[in-house]
Write a structure and sequence with these properties.
- This protein is of the alpha/beta class.
- It has three domains: 2-234, Rossmann fold; 240-330 and 412-500, P-loop containing nucleotide triphosphate hydrolases (Rossmann fold); 341-410, no CATH class.
- Helix content is 33%, strand content 26%.
- The protein has a six-stranded mixed β-sheet, with helices on both faces.
- The longest helix is centred in the middle third of the chain and has 16 residues, at 170-185.
- The radius of gyration is 23 Å and the shape is globular.
Amino acid sequence: MVVIQMRGISKRFGSVLANDKVDFELIKGEVHALLGENGAGKTTLMRILYGLYQEDDGEILINGISSQINSPKDAILKGVGMVSQHFTLVSPLTVAENIVLGFNPGIRLNPLDIEEKVKKASDRFGVVVNPSALVRHLSVGERQRVEILKALYRNINVLILDEPTAVLVPQEVDTLFESLERLRREGLSIIFISHKLNEVMTISDRITVLRDGRCIGTVLKQDSSEAELARMMVGRETYGVTRPDEECTGKPVLRIKNISAFGSKGLVALKDISLTVCENEILGLAGVSGNGQSELAKVLSGLLKPTNGQVLLGETEISRKNPAEITSLGVGRIPEDRQEGLVGELTVEENLALERLGEFTRNGTVNWKKVRGNAVELISQYQIKANPTDATRKLSGGNMQKLILARALSKKPKLVIAAQPTRGLDVGATEYVRNRLLEEKNNGAAVLLISEDLEEILSLSDRIAVMFEGRIAGILDAKNATEELLGLLMSGAKEMINEV
């Protein structure tokens, strides 16, 4: 039985044709993967299905009935739910309050009652949350799990999942997939958006690929391969990155010595952390979200002051310097949340100059001609699909990340701190970012790669450190690492191992 039919869907934004007569079909009880680069039109298509946008042309049928979806409320009432990459949670409320918000009968909320209901839903769907926790205290990964459970709680028939595994370790991914498989058998229909082709090949029944606003095709999983899907997405035969298989013999660039620090909740987030990153090396830092990686990145970037220990860049102590001072010493910073790393209301050229205003200012006056020239050069060099005067908030996720890369790497930094650099990006943008990090390494930089994507960690790193509950659970050579071993370390199920 066909539950969703999107026929000839077209959508324009000014002169841009985001969807060009796209057909999409979802069958009851299937997992249908939707793939495409940023700007390919997949987000627009799903926002039309969820009522965030209205199509200019075409028709949507739900269970064979032509339907007009004017808002997410309409979509939910028709049995369609969506978990997007940008969260819609209310920070001051608890997890349970967020999940039942707008769905709870009556006016009064009994906290204990709704927490019990949410706990039962959490157990049923296998999505672990703490119902009584305040959302503002949650990590990025914990917030995403709340969003997933919020959608499932509404008894929907169609669930759109956008990058749902980005913050999970392999064992948690397995648990989620088991839950999705159980839900699929019960009749739930799932649209699964992911840039991880191995996941798509694991969980999906059918796969639809969009490119440049058009539908390239729909294939059965058993009739396709990762290489073929990548070719459909990016229009070329090969994809991926190749890490040179060589030993790291460079001098230490970053030395972290016995660093401890408090997190936003007032609890100890970092406990006696010690790490070294050498020139010509990528040190991957793996861990489940919320185990101290974000706090360590903030310490290294000057956004969080440690309570103990030292951070040395070469021979210079930087642990108590501010972000501008750290940047001026040769540190390129790629923040975890690209939305926070950029000022959306500023233009592309303004954001590219933001961390280097001193270079474009004389006697208190900004040389805008120089700012424009810098932007034109970096837009070309980093293949950013934008004009210097475009508002940054209008860029796709991939182009925002390229903008951040251009700003962080254009001064040839000694150290690159890359936190979740490809989160939410498609195959083409992911490949571009990863190759840029490898270029920095090959040019002599030390790279600290903080990522919850184990495929990324394993494909780029020379050594891998794992964090668990604010400590280093182990450091190992990438050649000796497997997803299973890293997953055990990340979940605290394996004892500390020595550095090799």
